[in-house]
């Protein structure tokens, strides 16, 4: 029997439903991601008659329809997101095999317990030579908050339980794409730094995005005001800039994979595609700027 994953699906759905009404007000990262996914699709000169968007609350469709040339190449888009009232489990996609030309996922797969299984489901749902583009949070996400909470709780109680969800790293994603049977797999990363006037503003955004932790094995101790206050003190001491605004890191990993087809070129040797992609992208740390009203 497969061991249960780190997330409690009931809590994941609860967080998303609770955040659905005000999601778009805090969706600055999702908007950035769907714009990036659209940029990548614009560079691929081929049609995608039937597409699925897993996550994003309709933002992907809005982005595509705002780009006439891209919109002309993408036909029907099925938007699957709790915020839109259409819940689809990525581990059990309700689509026939080889029925979709394109599947995009803007920041939805990082809370899936069986990510290898979900990727296999996605690959099977794609027609031969169909494309998957998936963006999900990576391991550096919320490092400042994670470290501040651990240090505060350890200092005040003598131990610390899990408070922030675990996220995959770049090599994990690259390996999972291969295991799932994708052709021409590639993965890259974008590090986004967001600055806040106070750590509490970060927590407010996380709640509004439905991204507060929904862990199966949660700390037996409640996150008391005392622990949280001390964590905020540590956050300000260790992760603030000269203007006293605090930094929050979000690492976004983007996975690309094609459903196998005989017309595709042969894959490069393991590791070479990753190296060349990184060189071509020249990916650097990017600053998302100031949060308005934060």
Describe it for me?
- The protein has ten helices and seven strands.
- It is α/β, with parallel strands linked by helices and about 290 residues long.
- The protein has a single domain, classed as Rossmann fold (3-Layer(aba) Sandwich), CATH 3.40.50.150.
- The chain has a seven-stranded mixed sheet with strand order 2-1-3-4-6-5-7, with helices on both faces.
- Helix 2 packs across helix 3 and helix 6 packs across helix 9.
- The longest helix has 15 residues.
- It is elongated.
Q: Topology of this structure?
A:
Layout: H1 9-19, H2 28-42, E1 48-54, H3 59-65, H4 68-71, E2 74-80, E3 100-106, H5 115-125, E4 126-137, H6 143-157, H7 170-179, E5 183-196, H8 199-209, H9 225-238, E6 246-258, H10 272-281, E7 286-290
Parallel strand pairs: 1-2, 1-3, 3-4, 5-7
Antiparallel strand pairs: 4-6, 5-6
Quick overview:
The protein has helices at about 10-20, 30-40, 60-65, 70, 115-125, 145-155, 170-180, 200-210, 225-240, 270-280; strands at about 50-55, 75-80, 100-105, 125-135, 185-195, 245-260, 285-290.
How many separate domains make up the residues? 1
Protein structure class:
alpha/beta
Q: Please state the second-level CATH architecture.
A: 3-Layer(aba) Sandwich
Number of helices: 10
Mean pLDDT: 87
Helicity level, as a percent range? Answer: 25-40%
> What distance separates the N and C termini?
46 Å
**Strands across the major sheet, in which order?**
2-1-3-4-6-5-7
Say which CATH homologous superfamily is assigned. Vaccinia Virus protein VP39
Q: What amount of the residues lies in strands? A: 15-25%
Number of strands: 7
Which overall shape is indicated by the principal axes computed on the Cα atoms?
A: elongated
Biggest sheet statistics: 7 strands, mixed
């Amino acid at each position: 029997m497969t061991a249960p994953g780190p997330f409690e699906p009931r809590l994941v759905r609860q967080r998303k439903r609770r955040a659905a009404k005000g999601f778009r007000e805090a969706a600055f990262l999702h908007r950035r991601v769907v714009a990036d996914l659209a940029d990548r699709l614009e560079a691929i000169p081929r049609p995608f008659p039937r597409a699925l968007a897993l996550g994003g609350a309709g933002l992907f469709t809005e982005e595509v329809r705002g780009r006439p040339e891209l919109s002309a190449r993408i036909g029907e888009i099925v938007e699957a997101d709790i915020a839109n009232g259409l819940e689809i489990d990525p581990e059990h996609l309700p689509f026939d095999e080889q029925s979709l030309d394109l599947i995009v996922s803007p920041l939805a797969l990082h809370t899936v317990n069986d990510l290898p299984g979900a990727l296999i489901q996605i690959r099977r749902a794609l027609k031969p030579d169909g494309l998957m583009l998936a963006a999900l949070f990576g391991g550096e996400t919320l490092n400042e908050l994670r470290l501040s909470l651990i240090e505060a709780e350890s200092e005040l109680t003598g131990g610390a339980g899990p408070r922030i969800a675990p996220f995959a790293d770049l090599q994990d994603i690259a390996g999972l794409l291969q295991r799932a049977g994708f052709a021409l797999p590639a993965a890259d990363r974008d590090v986004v730094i967001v600055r806040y006037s106070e750590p509490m503003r970060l927590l407010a955004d996380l709640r509004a995005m439905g991204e507060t932790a929904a862990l199966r094995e949660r700390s037996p101790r409640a996150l008391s005001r005392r622990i949280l206050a001390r964590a905020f003190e540590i956050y300000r001491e260790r992760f603030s800039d000269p203007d006293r605004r605090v930094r929050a890191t979000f690492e976004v990993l983007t996975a690309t994979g094609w459903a196998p087809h005989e017309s595709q070129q042969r894959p490069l040797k393991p590791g070479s595609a990753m190296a060349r992609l990184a060189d071509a992208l020249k990916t650097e740390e990017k600053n998302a700027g100031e949060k308005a009203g934060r």
